Amino acid sequence: MLEVQGVTVDFDGLRAVDAASFRVDEGCIVGLIGPNGAGKTTLFNTVTGMIRPSAGTVRFAGRDLARLDPADRSRLGIARTFQIVKPFGGLSVRDNVLVGALTRGQAVAEARRTAEATLERLTMTHLADALAASLPLALRKRLEVARALATGPRLLLLDEIMGGLNPTEVNETLTLIRALNAEGLTFLIIEHNMHAIMQIAETVLVLNQGRLIAEGEPAAITRDPQVIAVYLGEPLEPA
Amino acid sequence: MQLALQILVNGLLLGGLYALLAVGLTLIFGVLRVVNFAHAEFMMLGMFGVYWVWHLTGLDPYLAVLVVTPLVLLFGIVCDRLIIQRTIGAPEVTVVFATLGLSIFLQNAALTLWTADIRSVTTAYSGMVLTPFGLRVSVPMLISFTVAMLAAAGLWLVLTRTLYGKAIQAVAQNREAAALMGIDVRRIYLWTFSVAVAAAGAMGGLIAPLFTVYPRVGISYIVTVFVIVVLGGLGSVPGAVLAALLIGLIEAAAGFLFGAAWAELSYFLIFLAVLIARPQGFFGRRGAEVFAGR
Amino acid sequence: MGNEPANELRVSLLVGLPLAAALVAVPTFVSDVFWLGLGITVLMWAALATAWNISGGLAGGLSLGHAAYFGVGAYTATLLFLRFGISPYFGLLAGAVLAGALGAAIGAITLRLRGPFFVLATLAFGIVVHIAAVNWRDLTRGAAGLLLPFGGGARNMLFAGVAPYWYLGLGLLALTLGVTLAIRRSPLGYYLVALREDEDAARALGVKVVRCKVAASAISAALTACAGAFYATYIQYIDPSSTTQFEISVQIALIAIVGGIGTTFGPALGALVVVPLGEILRASLGGGPALMLYGLMLIVIVLAAPNGVIGLLQRLLSMMRSGARRRATTRRSRGHA
């Protein structure tokens, strides 16, 4: 579904992503891990069109995305959350989500129903009228997910949505991801919570200093000596 | 050839005067992230200050500048405390319109106090002209230009060679990081703002013997100085000086070739083109225009 | 900034319809030319501030160049009438189309500019148009200005009395408010506010930046030009200093800010506060001190109440509401005891 081919990103002579190639098959959950500054979010930005790679191609559903801006890509079915959350602070939670639904081409009344259904699914209905700016961080992260879901995506990129959540909340999030996946939604997930990502991902990609250094099933990744050296520090028991 | 040289000299002298005004404006933007719409009103206050000191005491206008500049500095401190400090971190509409309000207030305060009369400062050397190589160079213009360039150079030295200047640069680059390093950001703001507007006041004092003094004199300068500061890259001091000289030249040349009104039009069009094509200016850092709003 | 368009529509129908009826009746009760004239001026500035608010408030692009569109509207209607005898009703439309195109172009080229850079670009644009109005004498007669013939007749939007302009002004304000309400209830309204709040997030959700910003700028410019054409036929004389001057741009923005930017009715409310206040101050103190107070008012408003008069009213209302609720709960708890 998503094919990234030799993508390279340079910032002022600094190579943030170096010839990264990978694919995400339809219906899969793929994890993307790596130390801070490895280039994970930059990779997300090239997939969603926020930045243009200096080299390489990104294809989605067989289509080259090079000429498409972030809005076009969203309308094709690529949605994302932001690691540094970006709520529309002056809007209510409902209207935040409504914006996502509107871009699918829904009329306002219909989009409001979509927004409310999405909020209900994320157990945020009681917050619908609250100003987004008034939410605590954990809920802002959930709002990111709600907004992205409202666009009706086929591929959802999640950027560290589990940071700062307690174990119960993490489990709820995992349940939600599994349920959405069962409905056909494909995931690419950046996550620092190793136990969580190893539980849910079918394939894990490891990025270090802009390079993909490993790719495989969670069990294989946790035993990969190179991954242990640069990132995990010590072998992780698969949960 | 002679004519071209004359235009070159006129343009550079004019540009040198603009430079002192532009350096202050660009500093305030670079450090405080505030576009000071009232900047030229501090220049106007300097002009009136020198006019009144000269008119009432008969003191030489260039000596009067030494009296007036510290007064403008004091007034700058007051404005910073009452207005500018309160705009830091406020919504964009506050940042833009607080200084615009200050500009309207100061212009009309001057109008109320001193009427719309056009005044001028005359000295024994007012009409004196030097004629090196057959060029005509006005003596007061030359004095003002020299002092303005020295003052701008002095500001530059303070910024680059002193510890305090380094602290100012640190704040300009990253307010939060500077605060974490123990720099008193509010004090840096206070001194940057008041010294910058004092420079504008000094510039006003320096041009008082050259141009007429009236309450709305700032309007004809502020927009030119915006052009300069954007051209030089908002926040860049050397950029501001170079762009000031360039705009002085363009004004002198275009004014001679097409007449004043069309010259003005032409550099506004240049301004728009620069803003749109290269908002970071010719000397500014790429990206400044992006984080500037926040 | 409250954003509940559905609720807003109900309130505006409840309050607006009786209010509109009362406003329509005004000329039958007020015949004094001074007061009616003041009322017309308020209506015009209310329409201007409301039009500014579409790009300045909803889309968040603080323009200091709207006098350019006002001037385009005024000069287009006047010149089409003087040169070709075209009725200013059509001239108004032509001016709106021209200004709309100009607004679209400005919207497109200032797209990437943020914060002060956007403000400076619009300021420079306004000044370019002003310089052109002053110096393109073959077209505008420069500072001498253009006079519309007295007694052009109702067919040419040139009335002898003042009352017709009251109705025209009312229509103009209703138009700008209606467009604002329609935008806020449409996807465009939501997109504009989303872009204002966070452009990156809006783009990631599929909001087309170019289309939205250009549309907002064009609509705002076209409505501003309508007010310009209205001004020309009302005063029946225009020159650059009364149409394209920088101060006009400042005044438009000032009124919107005092009223409350980003809200539907705030800018119109701002005109109701600022314009009469300005007239009173000018009459009692003279131009200089009046403008001094203007400047001071601008500073105080943006520092103390950046959401404007409407923000203050909302705060007052919610304070009263929570006060009432508190009283109600104490009464109830006392009842239990």
What does this protein structure show overall?
The complex is a heterotrimer of chains A (239), B (294) and C (337). With 239 residues, chain A is of the alpha/beta class. Chain A has nine helices and ten strands. Chain A has helices spanning 40-48, 70-76, 93-102, 108-121, 137-150, 167-182, 194-200, 218-223, 225-232; strands at 2-11, 14-24, 29-33, 55-60, 63-64, 78-80, 155-159, 186-190, 203-208, 211-216. Chain A has a six-stranded mixed sheet with strand order 6-7-8-3-9-10, with helices on both faces. In chain A, strands 2-1-4-5 form a four-stranded antiparallel sheet, with helices on one face. In chain A, β1 and β2 (14-24) form a beta hairpin. With 294 residues, chain B is mainly α. Chain B has helices spanning 2-32, 39-57, 61-87, 92-114, 139-161, 163-173, 175-180, 185-207, 217-231, 237-258, 260-277, 288-291, and strands at 129-130, 137-138. In chain B, α1 (2-32) packs antiparallel against α10 and α5 packs antiparallel against α8. Residues 286-294 of chain B have low confidence and may be disordered. Chain C has 15 helices and two strands. Chain C is globular, with a radius of gyration of 21 Å. At the B-C interface, α3, α4, α9 and α11 of B face α5, α12 and α14 of C.
Write out key terms for the chains shown.
heterotrimer; A: 239 residues; alpha/beta; Rossmann fold; 2 domains; 4-stranded antiparallel beta sheet; 9 helices; B: 294 residues; mainly alpha; ABC transporter involved in vitamin B12 uptake, BtuC; two-stranded antiparallel sheet; 12 helices; 2 strands; 76% helix; globular; disordered C terminus
Here the CATH topology of chain B equals ABC transporter involved in vitamin B12 uptake, BtuC
Report the major sheet of chain B.
Answer: 2 strands, antiparallel
Q: How much of the residues of chain B is beta strand, in percent?
A: under 5%
Helical residue percent band of chain C: over 70%
Q: What's the number of extended β-strand segments of chain B?
A: 2
Average predicted confidence as pLDDT of chain C? 88
Number of domains of chain C: 1
Spatial strand sequence of the major β-sheet of chain B: 1-2
Oligomer: heterotrimer
* SS class of chain C: mainly alpha
> How does CATH name the architecture of chain B?
Orthogonal Bundle
Largest interface, Cβ cutoff 8 Å: B-C, 48 and 45 residues
- Class based on secondary structure composition and strand pairing of chain B: mainly alpha
Q: What is the 3D shape of chain C? A: globular
What's the CATH first level of chain B? Mainly Alpha
Mean pLDDT of chain B: 85
Find the count of extended strands of chain C (DSSP E, 2+ residues). Answer: 2
